[in-house]
């Protein structure tokens, strides 16, 4: 878990663009392996930005589908109402082909949507004339690196030049999304990982004749500091006397955030924002300050809270490191988002850049 991929049970993952920097997280391994040409595509799990944020920091394409579009069966659950599986690829076509393979109804996932099959590659025409794009001012946050802002603003002008119309919009509840997420996600994490015992899957400590000691030690050694932190936060939020004050209130705020998006999507077809307010930062820089680490996901968290589809595409560089542009759409608008990203990709060269390793 976490925004830097430094909390792995094995070792930190390094960013192929600069081996002294993080690749983003928590699916940083997926993004780094694609960026380093170790694989063509990879799968990530996105709970609060864990596909899009590492895709941005590693200069690749990452897509978080609509909640329920892809089965979560087989995923070790973090936060069941937020988790979604999606593809990471070198370009938009790779992601569309992969989504064709993984999207669809699965009776083993109770949240899986039963929808007609879709060929996501068929809609990649590159024509976005008339598409209405909203630019939410709340996503251009204070503290955003100037190079990130500049790259994304230039990318927006490129979309406008391709025939899209651009207008400012507002999502006023965005400022509450971070607090809302860090109550809901740890609470669901606490409930889900209470089932983790080292018996059915994952790490298992067995150097003891006592099954109870084995289970206790498995959980002690199998969870790193960040996972333990989130379990404890969630257990506290769900405890007697605090449930209404924290978890219930967060769910009410979640409804307001969803309503914000519904209202805006009556005006526009899609939203464009930065994926991350910063480029890849040095390994170890934020490990001692969890709050600063959590703030890295400020542009991606609200999308999971609302269950919307979103994707990150490379749109430039800042200080020699990749910058990602985030495209957000209403529920089940993956075809439109993929085509917007494809149109931008065909008009630019950023997706062709490769790290010198």
Automatic annotation (TrEMBL):
Q: Predominant location of this chain?
A: mitochondrion
Task: Name the GO cellular-component terms.
Answer: glutamyl-tRNA(Gln) amidotransferase complex; mitochondrion
Q: What is its EC number?
A: 6.3.5.7
Q: Where is the Amidase domain?
A: 1-338
Instruction: Give the source's domain of life in one word.
Output: Eukaryota
Keywords for this entry?
ATP-binding, Ligase, Mitochondrion, Nucleotide-binding, Protein biosynthesis
SUPFAM superfamilies named in the record: Amidase signature (AS) enzymes
PROSITE patterns linked: AMIDASES
Q: Which InterPro entries match?
A: Amidase (IPR000120), Amidase_CS (IPR020556), Amidase_dom (IPR023631), AS_sf (IPR036928), GatA (IPR004412)
Catalysed transformations (reactions): L-glutamyl-tRNA(Gln) + L-glutamine + ATP + H2O = L-glutaminyl-tRNA(Gln) + L-glutamate + ADP + phosphate + H(+)
Catalytic site: 26, 50
User: Tell me, what is one Gene Ontology molecular-function annotation carried by this entry?
Assistant: ATP binding
The record's subcellular locations are: Mitochondrion
Q: Name one GO biological process term.
A: glutaminyl-tRNAGln biosynthesis via transamidation
Task: Tell me which family the UniProt entry assigns to this protein.
Answer: Belongs to the amidase family. GatA subfamily.
Function statement: Allows the formation of correctly charged Gln-tRNA(Gln) through the transamidation of misacylated Glu-tRNA(Gln) in the mitochondria. The reaction takes place in the presence of glutamine and ATP through an activated gamma-phospho-Glu-tRNA(Gln).
Its quaternary organisation is: Subunit of the heterotrimeric GatCAB amidotransferase (AdT) complex, composed of A, B and C subunits.
Name the chain's protein.
Glutamyl-tRNA(Gln) amidotransferase subunit A, mitochondrial
């Amino acid at each position: 878990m976490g925004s830097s991929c430094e909390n792995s049970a094995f070792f930190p993952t390094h960013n192929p663009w600069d081996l002294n920097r993080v690749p983003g997280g928590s699916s940083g391994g997926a993004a780094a392996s694609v960026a380093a040409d170790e694989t063509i595509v990879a799968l990530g799990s996105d709970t609060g930005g864990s596909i899009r944020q590492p895709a941005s920091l590693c200069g690749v394409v990452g897509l978080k589908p609509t909640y329920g579009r892809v089965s979560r069966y087989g995923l070790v659950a973090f936060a069941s109402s937020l988790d979604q599986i999606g593809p990471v690829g070198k370009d938009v076509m790779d992601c569309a082909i992969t989504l064709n393979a993984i999207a669809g109804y699965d009776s083993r996932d109770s949240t899986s949507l039963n929808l007609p099959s879709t060929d996501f590659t068929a809609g990649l025409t590159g024509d976005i004339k008339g598409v209405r794009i909203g630019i939410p001012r709340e996503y251009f946050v204070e503290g955003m690196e100037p190079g990130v802002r500049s790259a994304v603003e230039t990318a927006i002008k490129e979309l406008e030049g391709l025939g899209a119309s651009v207008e400012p919009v507002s999502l006023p509840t965005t400022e509450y999304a971070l607090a809302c997420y860090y109550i809901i996600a740890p609470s669901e994490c606490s409930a889900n990982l209470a089932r983790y015992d080292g018996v059915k899957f994952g790490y298992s400590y067995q150097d003891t004749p006592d099954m109870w000691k084995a289970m206790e030690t498995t959980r002690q050694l199998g969870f790193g500091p960040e996972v333990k932190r989130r379990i404890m936060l969630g257990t506290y939020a769900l405890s007697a006397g605090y449930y209404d004050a924290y978890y219930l209130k967060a769910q009410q705020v979640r409804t307001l955030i969803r309503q914000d998006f519904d209202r805006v999507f009556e005006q526009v077809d899609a939203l464009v924002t930065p994926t991350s307010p910063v480029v890849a930062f040095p390994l170890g820089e934020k490990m001692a300050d969890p709050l600063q680490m959590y703030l890295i996901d400020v542009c991606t968290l609200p999308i999971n809270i609302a269950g919307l589809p979103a994707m990150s595409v490379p749109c430039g560089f800042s200080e020699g490191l990749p910058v990602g542009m985030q495209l957000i759409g209403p529920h089940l608008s993956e075809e439109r988002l993929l085509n917007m990203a494809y149109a931008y990709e065909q008009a630019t060269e950023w997706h062709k850049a490769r790290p010198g390793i």
